[in-house]
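User: Can you predict the 3D structure for this chain?
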Amino acid sequence: MSDAFSRILDGELGGVEIKGDPVFVEYSFREEGRGMGLSLLHWVELNSDSKMGKWFRGDKLPENLVDDSADSINVVVKHYQNYTRRDSFAGITSS
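Assistant: Here is the predicted structure, written as structure tokens:
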């Protein structure tokens, strides 16, 4: 799994650094044109902004997303919000 994260962080996001480890959210199965597809949904917190690509708020996604990407993004955003809310209730702060 670390190879996949390294490829994304280094190659697709220009070497951006993350805080901690990726947090697993869920497996996402979906039907595709060639059969069933599987995505492993995770989120990470960035140490700095990536200069690669264009970034959007989870509640202001562009209209032209690929297939069911918006559904997956919404699941991940909700998980992140619940996770960070849980930490703040426990007196834990992200650094």
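Residues 2-89 form one domain. The chain is about 35% helix and 30% strand.
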